[in-house]
User: Fold GATOR2 complex protein WDR24 from Drosophila ananassae.
Amino acid sequence: MPDSLEDTSTISLRICLEGHANALALNKDNTQIAVAGRSLLKVYSIDNDGFTESCNMRGGKNQNLSYSSNDVAWSTLDSNLLATAATNGVVSVWDLSKFGRQKQLLVYNEHERTAHTVTFHSSEPNILISGSQDGTIKCFDIRSDKSVNTYFSNSESVRDVKFSPHTQNIFSAVSENGTVQLWDMRKWDKSMVQFTAHYGPVYTCDWHPTRNWLATGSRDKQIKVWNMDGRPGLEHTIHTIAGVGRVKWRPERTYHIASCALVVDYSVHVWDIRRPYIPFASFNEHTNVTTGIAWQGSDSHCLLSTSKDSTIYKHAFKDATRPALKANAQGAGLGRFGDISFANKIKEYAPKASGVSNTKSSSFIRRKANVAGSVQFHLDHSKMYKFALNDSFLQFSGYPLSESEAKPRQEHESFIGCARELIINGKKLSELCEHNAEVSKKYGKHNASTLWNFIKLFYGSNHFEPPFEHRSSFSNQKNPMNSRRATQVASDWPQQRNDLGQDLNGNTPETANEISVANADDDPLGGSGVEHPPTSSVILSETHIIHEITFDNFELLRNGFIYVGPTECAKALAFPALHHDVQAARPQLDLKASDHEKSPPPHVPTVLKVSHVPSIPMWEPHKFVGDALMLMNDVGDVQTALIVLISLGEARKLLPIEDTLVEHWFHTYVDQLHRYELWNEACEVINRSWLRSVQQLNQHSTAMHLNCGECGRPMGGKVGWYCDKCKSMQSAKCCVCGLIVRGVYAWCQGCSHGGHIEHLQKYFAKHSKCPKCGHLCAYS
Assistant:
C-alpha cells in the first residue's frame, strides 16, 4: 500500500508530569503499549484516536528502586507477562492478570550494577535475558527464582541484547567497548563470535526480520548493518548527526530502518540503507530526546515513540517530512589532501517508445518526478567531479617563493609536516621559537614564522614568575655587544613627584614634561631620580625595535598586527614608536661664566626638555599576541595558534584568551590530527594540555579485557598472562612457535590465541584458520 494512501493520523498523549519514559514495548497483538521510566511504569491501550491508560504499576506508597526502570520488554507469546530492568540492577517480571503488589511476580537481584536491557525469547515463553553495567548477561527462567546461566562479556558494560529471529538459541550482545558478540545460550563459557563494530560505545542492536542482518548503533554517530552469514561482514553504514540510542527495522521494507539519537537530535528518522546520508523520512513532533521507538506489528505505516518530553506519539507515515525534498541537489567538499569534490544531480531522460521526429529536442523526453514516499528514493543519481591544485598555483598567484620552496606544497602537506616537526617542549622558549620559525618557513607558513619571531622577542628573553608582572622595558637588559638607550615617557607615569631636586646645572627643573634619555648599560635610572613606568607596561624604543625585531617580510605587519589575509599587504609599518618634535625644544640657559672652566661630573646624563609630548599610550604586547593567535585561528591555522599557546607554558596566563576558546582549539586540532592518523602527535598535544576535559580524551575505554586461550575464562590480570582458573601460562606462548612471547604480542579476540606478530603474519599469509584450535581468525 503506498504511504500516501494510509488513513491513520498522528496522535499523541502526555503520559507523566513527574518524569519521562526511558523505553516502550508492544504486546504480541499490538493493541497495548508499556512505557517505563524512573518514575513511571504504565500500560496503555492503543485506540484509533488516542491512548487509554489501562494499568499503573507504580501506584502505591511502598515503592523502591526496583520500580525505576531503564528498559521494558513484553513477552512475545503471553500478553500478561512484562519484564523490566531497573537502575539498581534488579530484573522484575510482572503479571498483568494479578492485582495490586502481586503484579510483581518475580524479582531477580543478581546484577551488581545497573541493568540496561532485558528481552524475552522469541519462541520460549519462560526464558528472558538481561544485560548490565557489570559486564555480565544473565539468563532467567521464570519458573525458577534464580538465574539459569551467566555469560561474561569481558567488557565494561553490556548495553543491549537481542535474540536472533533466524536461529533459536542465538542472541547478540553489544558493549561499551565497541564490540559485538554472538552467544549460544547452551554454551555459557565462551561467545561464538566477537568483533569490533564501532570506535565508540555501542548502545543498541536489532535483527532484520527476514535477512540475517544485524544493525548496530553507536556513539560514533553511525548505524552499521552486518551480514552475519559466516564471518561477519559490513554491508552498509549510515552516518547520523548524533550518537545513536535506538534502532528498529521497518516491517515489510527490506532496506528501511528507524533510529533516534541520544542527544542533540529530537527527531525519529527512517533511513534507506542504500542512500545512507539523508533520511528517507523524519518525524519531528518531539521536543526533547527520543528514548524509545517501535513499529506497530507488521504495519509499516505506524511508528510509536516516547521521549524525555513525557509524551508518547503514534506517528502516521503520511505525516512524515521528507528531508530529501528540501536538500540542495549540489554539494562540495574539501578533502584531506587538498582536493575539492563537487557533485550535482543528474537530470534523467528516457528515449521515446516509438515514432521519429525531425526535431532534435523530441528524441528524448524527461521522466516524471517520483512522488514523495516512493520506493525509488534510493535511485537518485548525481555526477561527481574532483579538482586538485595545480602545481603552479602558488607561482601563478604571485606569492614569493625561495629556492627551497620552488616545489609548492599543498595545504595538507604543510599541516602534516608542521605537526611532525614543530616542538612544544624540551628546549628553552627562545630556542623553541627559533626552531618552530624555521619549520614554519620551510613549509611556506611565513605568517606563522613571523609570529614565532615575535614570541621569541616578547617572551624568550624574559623570565615570568607569579604574579606574572610585565617587564618595564625590554631595553633594560645588559648587552655588552650592543649598547641601546631606553626611552621613557614621563608624562605617562601616574603622578610626577613635585620634588625632583635640582638638575645637573644647579637649576630647578621646570614643570614641563621631560623625556630623560640615559645610558641603559651605565645607569638605568639615568641619575635623575625619575620613577620608572608601571610594571604593567612595556616601552620599546625605535632603536630597540630596529635592532631586536627581525622580519622575513615587513609587509606582513599592519597597524601593529601580523596580517595573514589573502590580499596584498600594506607596505607601511605602523608599529608603536616614540617621535620627538626637536624643533619645539626650548633653548637651554647658558652656563655661568664661572662654570665654563669646570670639568663636568662623571656619568652626566643628557636632559632634553621639550614643551609638548604627544600622548602615546603604553603598548600592551600580551593583548597583541592574543589577538594574533585568534586571528590565526580565524583564518584556519588553529595548528599555529595552539602550538604557540602550549609552548608559552605558564606565560600563557598573560594572554587575554578564554579557556572555552582554548578548549575548542584543542578539540579541533586533535580531531585534525586523528583525520591524518597522526596518533603520536595527537597524544602529545593531549598530554601537554592543562584543561581537564582535554586530558580525559586519552582516558576513555582504556581497559583491555582478555580471555584465557585454554579455558576461555576472563583473565584476572594480576600476574601477566597467568590464568587463575586453569592455573596455566599457555596464553603467553606463541601458537605458531610455542615459545613465550617477549615483545609485541598479537592475538585473536575470538579464540584468544596469539603469538609473535611476525610469526602470525607469515602463517596467515598462507592459512586462514587458527593453528591451535582451527578458529577462523580475523587479523588486519
Remarks:
- The CA atoms of residues 282 and 321 lie 5 Å apart.
